[in-house]
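Q: What residues go here?
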């Protein structure tokens, strides 16, 4: 049935009738009918505006305000559940939003570049390509949970502040922070059971992570990938596949080679115990079977890093590995490791 929404004029109807007669005469009536139905279908190119109470997925928050997800849990979504384009938005959850699968190009919640000072509270996203995508500046999250997405949380926007960001059983990476996410801060957050990396600092500089956990992930608990001048304090990176913490470029872990030409190394980072050394950070391996090869591994050419009050034991190869001869100018002090490479005490500051 043709409605007012289709805006079909009498002149257009005359044209359609003529084309229909021609289609019948040439044996293409079925194909014409299909094309006509598609042409007259209402457009769904743009999602409608979200109400302050959001009962179902598939809308855009394009005005400032306080919004709440109110649908029955889980709220199913065939695409992106909530797209945030406006600034000064708070979105509260309390229900699970569930996507069409981790292999799809979908976001559970997308904070667009135009959205400044967006806040997410108590949201949970599962089965999307990316559970939470932060592109806008000055975003904050409190108790955001992702699970079974290809990537849990991806941060590109500057000055993001994540508190209790939790990733459980995401695929490629639990929490990924990219180079444009300057002045990044994350507190009391963690990842577990990702198929790939738990927490990835990808080209990031100047980030601060406090009280992070990364346990049982497939490759690295925490990966500093071409990431420099960051501080990670009070962390636990245990029972991961390759290394609790890895500073380097090789996706498979340390392999005795420096980063390729044009690929920056990870330098000038400081990793230490909680509250600047009062309690040890942990890179132990206690799982059965034992999987984590290295507690901390520093690849060749990654220099000027500092390691303070970190404890490791039970790792398959070494609790601490520094591929730079005599640790280069990396500094290791007041750590507790059972096995290291090079051997402990090669110098006052090297794997002591």
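A:
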């Amino acid at each position: 049935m043709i409605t007012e929404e289709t805006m079909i004029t009498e002149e257009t109807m005359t044209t359609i009738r003529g084309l229909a007669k021609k289609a019948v005469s040439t044996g293409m009536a079925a194909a014409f009918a299909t094309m006509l139905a598609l042409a007259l279908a209402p457009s769904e190119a743009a999602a409608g505006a979200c109400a302050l109470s959001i009962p179902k997925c598939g809308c855009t928050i394009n005005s400032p305000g306080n919004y709440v997800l109110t649908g029955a849990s889980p709220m199913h979504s065939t695409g992106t559940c909530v797209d945030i384009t406006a600034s000064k938005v708070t979105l509260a959850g309390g229900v699970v939003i569930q996507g069409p699968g981790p292999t799809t190009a979908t976001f559970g919640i997308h904070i667009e570049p135009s959205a400044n000072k967006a806040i997410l509270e108590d949201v949970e996203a599962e089965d999307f390509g990316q559970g939470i995508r932060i592109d806008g500046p000055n975003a904050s999250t409190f108790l955001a949970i992702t699970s079974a997405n290809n990537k849990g949380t991806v941060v590109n926007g500057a000055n993001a502040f994540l508190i209790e960001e939790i990733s459980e059983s995401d695929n490629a990476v639990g929490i990924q922070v990219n180079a444009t996410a300057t002045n990044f801060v994350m507190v009391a957050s963690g990842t577990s059971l990702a198929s790939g990396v738990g927490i990835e600092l990808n080209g990031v500089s100047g980030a601060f992570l406090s009280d992070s956990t990364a346990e049982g992930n497939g490759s690295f608990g925490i990966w500093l990938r071409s990431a420099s001048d960051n501080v990670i304090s009070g962390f636990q990176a245990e029972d991961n596949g390759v290394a609790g913490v890895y500073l380097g470029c090789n996706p498979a872990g340390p392999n005795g080679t420096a980063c390729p030409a044009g690929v920056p190394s990870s330098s000038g980072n400081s990793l230490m115990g909680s509250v600047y050394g009062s309690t040890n950070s942990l890179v132990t391996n206690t799982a059965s079977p034992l999987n984590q090869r290295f507690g901390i591994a520093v690849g060749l050419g990654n220099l000027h890093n500092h390691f303070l009050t970190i404890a490791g034991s039970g790792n398959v190869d070494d609790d601490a590995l520094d591929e730079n001869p005599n640790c280069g100018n990396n500094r290791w002090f007041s750590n507790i490791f059972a096995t290291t490479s090079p051997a402990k005490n090669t110098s006052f500051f090297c794997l002591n």
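A: Context that may help when evaluating the design: Helices lie at 10-25, 29-40, 274-277. The first helix runs from residue 10 to 25.
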